[in-house]
Each structure stands twice: as C-alpha cells, then as structure tokens.
Specification:
heterodimer; A: mainly alpha; Cytochrome C Oxidase, Chain A; 2 domains; six-stranded mixed β-sheet; three-stranded antiparallel β-sheet; 18 helices; 5% strand; disordered C terminus; B: alpha+beta; three-stranded mixed β-sheet; 9 helices; 19% strand; elongated
C-alpha cells in the first residue's frame, strides 16, 4: 500500500491519475445531475440560487481540470512510454510530483464545499460561484466578497503547476526516449497527439497563470488589473482567459482524437488511413488554435474587423478537424470491422463530435452567434464536443487499454450496455439544448419562467442526464466485476499494431526486457504474419497449430573459423502459446548469460558437423519463441509428434540466406538479465541474425497446418 | 426537432422568428449555415453508418487491403469543406459590417445601463429615464448604447436580434428597426451574480402614435394622488422611508441606485420582468425583495413596514401611471 504513495513508476502513476480523475468525474457528474434536477421544471426550487451558481461553476471547473485533463493524463502516463518502447518517462519523480500536486489542487478546490464556517460565511459551502471561466469584474472582491473566488483561483494555480510539470516531462520523454528506429513519423498517433497537447499545455498555462495572478493581486493586494474605474478593463481578463482557454479545449480533444486514431485501425484490421495527414492536421490544429480565441467574445463589441478576422480563423480551423474525420471513416472503409466496445466508443466519438463541430461552425459566424452565445445552444455545443467527443474517446481508450493495464478484459456485454445507454442518454440530454437555446433560454440561470415554453425540452434533457448516470453505473459494475471475474488478457487481446501489445498484461515494472528496435509504423503487424484473431483472444493454445522459428546468426566469428564467417542456427518451436511441454523439444531453457557471450562462445568452440554438449538455447525471442543453436536441436525428438525426417545438421559454411533478419535486440536472454544490458549490449553483437525462411521450410519436418514463420525485425 | 418546434408555444423569447432588420439579417445567415451543416452532417453520418454495416466482420472474409492513404482524396476532402466555408464566410463578413451598430441620424437613441439585476433606460433626446421596459416606435431605427454600472451583463431581446454585452467602462451598440408591433421579452445573457436568472426585460414596440403618447406621459410629472386616498398616505410613507435613497420619483425623491419609479404604475411587470405588476406581487416585493430575488440590494426595511403601510405604498405606486 505504501508503495503507491512513493511510486515513481509511470504505470502506477497512470492508475493513480485514472482513479482520482474518475472520482472527480463522478463528483462533476453529480453536480450536473443536481443542476438538471433543478432545471427539470420551471421555477424549480430544489436548490437556492447561490448553491446553483456554485454547482455550475464547480461542474465546469471539475470536469475540465479535474476529470477530463487528468483522465487523458492517465493514458499519457501509462501508455505513451509503452508505445515508444521506453522504460518510463524522462523524469519519473517529477511525474509523481505532478500527480500529487494535481490531487492537492483537486482537494483544495473541493474543500470549499465544506469550509464555509471557517470563513464565517453563514453557510456550509463557499465553493467558487463565478462560472468556470470566472469573468472579471464579477470576480473582483467588490462583487464577490467571500473566499469562493479565492478557492477557485488558488486551486487553478496549483493545478497549473501540475500540468506544466507534466507537460515538460512528456515532451522530453517523447522526443528523447523513443526506441531505436522509431522515427517521429513512426510514432503512434496517440503519442503524437500527446506531444502536441503537451506543447499546448506549456504555452497556454502560463497565460492563465498571468491572468490568475492579476486577479489574485486585485483581490488580495488592491491592484486594479480588471477595474474600469481605475482605467483598466474587465475585457483584459477575457482576452487572457480565452488565449489560454481556446488552446485548452484542444488540449482536451486532441488526446481523445489520438486514442480514436489508434483504436480504429486495430478493430478495422487495417492501418490508419492517411497517417501523415492525421498527424500534421493535429499539429496544425495546435498552431491554429492560438488564433481563434476571440470567437468566445463575439458579443463583446470588439468591432467588425476583429470579429471578421476571428470568424475567418475559426472557420479555417474546421478544415483540419474535418480532414481527420474523413480519414477515420476511410480507415473503417474496406476494413474487417470487429464491433468491440472500444470500437463502439471510437465510432461514437466520430458520430457525436461531428455534431459538436458543426454547431461550432454556426458559432463561427458572429452575427448568427449573437443569438447563440451565452445560451443553451452553446452549452449543447460544448457538451457534444467534450462529452460526445472527449469522454467517448476516453472510454474507447479505457476499454482498449484496460486489459493491458490490469491483465483482465472488461465485459463486452456490460460494455455495450454502457455504450448504448450513454449514447442515447447524451443525445437526449444535449440535443434538445440546441433548441432550448434558440428558444431564448440563456445559460447559467438557476431557474426559468414557464412562459418561455422550454419546460418540456428541459425535462427531456434531465431524463437524458440521468440515463447517462445509469450508463456510468453500468461501467462501474463492469470495473468491479472484472477485478475478480474478468477474463484474463494475454499480451495482445486485440491484435494491436503498436508496441504496447508486445509485452505482458500488465507489463512488468521495466516494461520491455529488451528495448525493441522498430523498423516501421506498425511494428507488430509488419513483424509477424498476423492472422485476424477474434477479440478477447488470449494465448489459449491451439494444439494443432505449430509455428517454427528459424534464426540464423551471422557475424559471430569463431576464433578458429575456417570459413571466415561463423553461422549459428537456431530453431525454436512455438507450440500454441509458449514453450512446449517437455518431451517435445529437446531445447533446454537453462538460463544463459546473453546472446553475444554465448554465441561467441559457441562460435569459438564450434566445429562444423559436431554436436555441442550444451542445450542450445541462446535466448527467447520477444514473440515467446526460444532461439537456439540448430546444431543442438535434437530434431529426432520431434518425431514423437512428427511423421517426418530428421533434420540434417546444417553446414554453417554454406548458409542459404533467404528471407529476413532476426536481430539480437529482439532476443532476450533467458534470465531477464537483458534489463540491465541496455544499448551497449545490443550493439555488441553487431550484425543481424538472419532467419532462414525457405531453408527451414525445406529442412524441417512438419505436418499440414504447421506454419513456418520468418521474422522481420 | 422540427416537430417539437411546431407543437407547443408561443415562444416569447424565440430567436427563430425575428421581427427586426437586425434580427432577420442574422436569421438569414444562421439558416444558410444551418443547411450547409445539415448537409455535411447527413453525408458524414451516412458514410459512417454505411462503412460500419458494409465492412463489419464476417467469417471467411479475406484480410483487408492495408491502404495507407490516397493523396488525391486528401486534397479533395480538404478543399471541399474549405469551399463550403467560403459560402459561409462571405455572407458572414457582409452581415458583420451591416449590423455593426450604426443607425441613421433620426434613430431613437437610448442609453442602456445594466445593473445588478435590473435595466436602466435613458432616452437621450427625450430626456426620459425609465427601467426594465423599453418602448420603441415601429418603423424607426433604434440605437442602443449599452454599458454597465457594475459587472458585465448582456442585453438580449431574441425576437429583435442578437445580444450585446454591457461592460463597465465601455459602450457597445446595437441598432435595429423593429418591424412588428408587440411585446418582446428578453433577459440578461451574461452571468452577473446571484440573480442573473432574474434580470429580465421587455421591449414594447408601439405604433408611432402610441409611442408618442407614451413618451408624452412619461415626460410629464407623476399624477398627484387624490387627497385622503390610500395613495396619498402611501406617498407620505414613501417620502419618509429609505425608499427615497434608491429610487427616483420625479418631484418626490432623487435616488439613483434603483429603478426610476416615476411611472411605475404603467409597467406590465415589476422586479425587472419577474412578476406581473399587481397588488399582491408589489406587496410581497416591498415587504421582502431578497426572498423573491436572491441577492437583491433592496433589503427589508428595518424596522419592517406594517401591512397597512405596505398596502398604502402599493396604492401609491399603482397610481403612478
């Protein structure tokens, strides 16, 4: 237990983020339910005006800063190092620091619900009540005399520290700790979007920090940064906040877009369509997101020129966003789509985000926006992009990566129930809001008159909200049940293309015993012949399927080589899921010190045509196949199963180089000692080990159904 | 949604049927963008659903072709949305400039001042001050110059057009020409504190002659209450109470913190559009305004007024036609 308090392991920190953020998500959700209960009927009196104003402020602040951002961060933490083939982030202790500061900020902010008496407030709660974007000059001491806004601004400053630290951490991690061969354009899209997001974090958070410092000075030290009578203007706050605020919404959406970009190919069984374009459009969105902030201020009267410019930039940014959507649909197109829960959520993201994106285009036109802004129409927009977008995307990531993180699969049945309840619920909750807004109901009002005629629509919206709550309950049941009853997941239950699926679930603390060398964008698809397996496939052995791995080592010079180049052959036999039961292989699994040492030792003492005394296991390939010296393989032992012939010992002086290469980097010494070896060891061996594809096929007995695999590293 | 639109109503704060040139300009623009958006929506969703059905997994299906991309398609679906956006952007910019708040010289000019949580209207040329209900003539332009006395509010009458923020230290403008006689309701649209929800307002569009009569009455002093009537007693109570510190009644009191009450009896609603202007609501309002409107600065009198006093005050206020 204590280890959780002191951990610097990115995987544990990722889980800490996840559960903490999820708890805050539930809090924000309950705040929303109370809001909807209050608005279910006109002139409602479930809560007072003051409480309501605190509720909507805390709902927004909690969801943005304490739920959505940290949920994304849980995946940054857990998955990014795995996707890039790293052992941890660049600064593990800073990483832990980020988490604990986030927890502190969240607790500080929410403590305000209970500490009214400490401030002689006359009520229990002094929670922030100025809205989640806290416009000046309502937030000045004159108009908000209590400690509510102080909790808000100090809480946000604390959270900003956490985010900034994490931002630098992930940037360094992604740029510096990628596995060999993983060029930037081979990095999975989720990691790419994470990188863009972190750049947005480190540039945008300083802006709100400045804005909040000004507010803090106004409230505590009597300055006048936002006070008109002193010659300043409250519009300064709006500019500072939205300069941060707009990149912030891209911080919220890009990770979810990255998740969708990784999930869709896995379940469509084909690569992401237009990877380069998807990546570049993400980067472009990151840059362009800095040029649109005043579209939140179209009713402020900035003037027709400013309005026109921001209108144009806002419309422009719709283009790279739309491009992504088309690429995702093209990924599905022509695929072999498996309808797992993760896929449902990824598709749900596309379907719902397009609605939010299109209502965003209507907002982009200032004259039209003047009827929409500050009404329930914009509330509909933000919830379609943040709930239908980010939250759906995050759930796709949860269902996708849960087996990797916990070793158990979430129930698909419960998952589908969760999805459909949430999908129906969110549309019931948020679609009517478009109309409610157009019928004249502003946002942030604790009650409304029955004369407006929006009572029925509000009731429908409330029902939808409670349906969403039910769907989340289903999800919680799913998590709890899987802890004990969940089907165990192997390394790769989905047949994924990226590196995280090459290691056990959950991964060992060091992630990869041998840091893989990557040769392309889809290391797991290009590296083995991948037959489409059904979701949930574990390493249950199919006894009829056998695969034989043949490896040929070049460049290991024996001391007394007569041929000039010694060749070590290796044959391993994969029976079902792992190293075969005793009796079928004469391969020992005795630990050896390392490929180079032993290969050299072998080669040093190797004499063609002779049989060595040791069992010949040189190591274990990352696919789980033992790699051994062929000459040591007593293939006659195979005859217990095989009908065929013995394998003649190969003449190492006349190798047949057919096929592909097995690199020492892919072979771990049996004792896991590779963890300490690192780059130096990997490069010691030098040349590749070559896999004799054709020769093996010719020379090794097999039955119908045996597959002989070449391995391209 | 459209069905829902048809049933129910009336919708007094609807943006969908505007009755001014400003409102119609924005409505035309919104409608155009809406239909483009609907078209894109249908296209994308149909493609998505089709792909999901057509390419769902079936046994025996061969492995999909690992298509990595297609440059021409990328160009096409980059340029197509950009082209559509041009059709949105051009009318947008035109409308921005057309609705930038300029009005002809003969427009009715009103200064709008937002307060927590009521609206003050000052007719510049008429020299008239009133609150919460704005009368304007049909067929003439109206130019509103909007600001705030405290925090940021937003002036919004959906039936007549879009909103503009009321920002302390700034003056923003709306110009419109109303096109139909009637009453239009609206409310503050920028969160401004405890009673933001209660900061409502009404615009009454009168024919030119009715407006003229209204203006004449407003400019005249208040009617003197009949001697010995409850209204006269109410006036006496008013004049000796704290009321005079906040409210102006021409010839009686000079307060400017609260709404001008010179012709309050003429208004259809009180408490900035919250309640009908009748005895019961007036009495409750005078007795304890914050209980009806959280945070209202019109606190209870100390010592509290008696019921008889309140009744007299009500009679007086109702006489201020």
């Amino acid at each position: 237990m204590k280890s959780w308090l002191t951990t610097t392991d990115h995987k544990r920190i990722g889980l800490l983020y996840f559960f903490t953020a999820f708890a805050f998500f539930l809090m924000g959700g309950i705040e929303a339910l109370v809001i909807r209960a209050q608005l279910a009927q006109p002139n409602g009196h479930l809560v007072t005006a003051e409480t309501y104003n605190q509720l909507f402020t805390m709902h927004g602040t909690t969801m943005v800063f304490l739920a959505l951002m940290p949920l994304s961060a849980s995946f940054f933490n857990y998955i990014v190092p795995l996707q890039i083939g790293a052992r941890d982030v660049a600064f593990p202790r800073l990483n832990a620091f980020s988490y604990w500061v986030f927890l502190l900020g969240g607790l500080f902010l929410n403590a305000s619900w209970l500490v009214g008496p400490l401030f002689h407030a006359g009520r229990l709660s002094v929670a922030p009540d100025g809205g989640w974007f806290g416009y000046a000059n309502l937030t000045e001491r004159q108009f908000s005399p209590g400690p509510n806004i102080d909790f808000w601004l100090l809480g946000l400053q604390i959270l900003g520290i956490s985010s900034l630290a994490a931002g630098f951490n992930f940037i360094v991690t992604i740029l510096n700790l990628r596995a060999p061969g993983m060029r930037m354009m081979r990095v999975p899209v989720f990691t790419w979007m994470t990188l863009v997001t972190q750049f947005l974090v480190i540039t945008a958070f300083p802006v709100i920090t400045v804005g909040l410092v000004f507010l803090m000075f106004d409230r505590f030290f009597g300055t006048h940064f936002y006070v008109s009578q002193a010659g300043a203007t409250p519009i300064l706050w709006q500019h500072l906040f939205w300069l941060f605020g707009h990149p912030e919404v891209y911080i919220l959406i890009l990770p979810a877009m990255g998740i969708v970009s990784d999930v869709l190919p896995t379940f469509a069984r084909k690569p992401l369509f237009g990877y380069t374009v998807v990546v570049y459009s993400g980067v472009l969105i990151g840059f362009m997101g800095w040029g649109v902030w005043s579209h939140h201020m179209f009713s402020v009267g900035l003037g027709p020129i400013a309005d026109s410019v921001f209108s144009a930039t806002t419309m422009l940014i719709a283009v790279p966003t739309g491009v992504k959507i088309f690429n995702w649909i093209a990924t599905l197109w022509g695929g072999d789509i498996r309808g797992t829960t993760a896929l449902h959520f990824a598709v749900g993201f596309i379907a719902m985000f397009i609605i939010g994106g299109l209502s965003g285009v209507t907002h982009a036109s200032p004259p039209a926006d003047l009827q929409q802004t500050d009404t329930y129409y914009v509330v509909a927009h933000i919830h379609y992009v943040l709930f239908g977008g980010t939250i759906m995307g995050l759930f796709a990531g949860i269902y996708y990566w849960w087996p990797k993180m916990t070793g158990r699969l979430l129930s698909e049945t419960l998952g589908k129930w969760h999805f459909w309840l949430q999908f129906v619920g969110m549309n019931l909750a948020f679609f009517p809001m478009h109309l409610i807004g157009l019928l004249g109901m502003p946002r942030r009002i604790y009650t409304y008159s029955p004369e407006l005629g929006v009572s029925d629509l509000n009731l429908v919206s409330t029902i939808g909200a409670f349906l969403i709550a039910l769907s989340i309950l289903v999800f919680i049941v799913n998590i709890v049940r899987t802890r004990t009853q969940g089907q165990r997941a192997g390394n790769d239950p989905w047949g994924g293309a990226t590196l995280e699926w090459s290691i056990p679930s959950p991964p060992p603390v060091y992630n990869f015993s041998v840091i893989p060398t990557v040769a392309n964008r889809l290391p797991r698809w290009k590296t083995e012949h991948h037959d489409a397996r059904s979701p949930g496939h574990t390493t249950r052995a199919d006894p009829r399927a056998r695969r034989i791995l043949v490896a040929h080592a070049r460049g290991l010079r024996p001391a007394d080589s007569r041929a000039g180049t010694a060749h070590a052959y290796a044959v391993g036999r994969l029976r079902g899921g792992g190293c075969a039961a005793a009796g079928h292989l004469s391969l020992g699994v005795r630990a050896l010190r390392g490929l180079s040492d032993d290969a050299r030792r072998y080669c040093a003492s190797y004499e063609p045509g002779t049989r060595q005394s040791q069992d010949g296991v040189l190591g274990v390939h990352r696919l789980g196949v033992p790699v051994v010296h062929l000459a040591h393989l007593d293939v006659s032992g195979l005859q217990g199963e095989e009908r065929g012939r013995t394998v003649p010992a190969r003449d190492p002086q006349h190798p047949v180089h057919v096929g592909q290469h097995l690199r020492p980097a892919d072979v771990e010494p049996d004792d896991g000692a590779g963890a300490r070896r690192g780059a130096a060891w990997r490069h010691e061996v030098g040349k590749d080990l070559a896999v004799l594809y054709g020769a093996a096929r010719a020379g090794v007995p097999g039955r119908a159904g045996d597959g002989v695999h070449g391995v391209r590293a | 949604m459209l069905a829902l639109l048809g049933c129910g109503g009336p919708f007094p704060q609807s943006t969908l049927h505007p009755h001014s040139d400003f409102g119609r300009a924005t409505d035309v623009l919104f409608t155009e963008i809406f239909w483009w958006a609907t078209g894109v929506f249908v296209l994308v969703e149909v493609l998505l659903v089709f792909a999901l059905i057509r390419f769902r997994h079936r046994e025996g299906r061969p492995a999909p072709r690992p298509t990595h991309g297609h440059t021409l398609m990328e160009i096409a679906w980059t340029l197509a949305p950009a082209a559509i956006l041009v059709f949105v952007a051009v009318p947008t910019v035109r409308t921005i400039f057309a609705t930038a708040g300029e009005a002809p010289a003969d427009a009715v000019k009103v200064d709008v001042i937002g307060h927590q949580w009521w609206w003050e209207f000052r007719y510049r040329e008429l020299g008239l001050v009133t609150a919460n209900e704005l009368h304007v003539p049909l067929g003439r332009s109206v130019q509103l110059s909007i600001t705030s006395a405290d925090v940021i509010h937003s002036f919004w009458i959906p039936g007549l057009g879009g909103k503009r923020d009321a920002i302390p230290g700034h003056v923003t403008r709306i110009a419109f020409r109303p096109e139909q006689v009637g009453e239009y309701s609206g409310q503050c649209a920028e969160f401004c504190g405890a009673s933001h929800a209660n900061m409502r307002l009404r615009v009454v569009v009168d024919s030119d002659s009715v407006y003229g009569r209204w203006a004449t009455v407003q400019l005249a002093g208040p009617a003197a209450p009949a001697p010995g009537s409850a209204a006269e007693r109410g006036k006496t109570i008013f004049a000796r109470s704290a009321c005079i510190g906040c409210h102006t009644i021409q010839g009686v009191s000079p307060g400017v913190i609260g709404p001008n009450l010179t012709h309050v009896g003429d208004r259809a609603t009180i408490a900035s559009g919250l309640f009908p202007n009748d005895s019961a609501h007036l009495a409750r309002w005078i007795a304890d305004a914050p209980s009806l409107k959280p945070g209202a600065l019109m606190t209870r009198m100390q010592p509290p007024l008696t019921d008889a006093d309140i009744a007299a005050l009500v009679a007086y206020l109702q006489s201020l036609q």
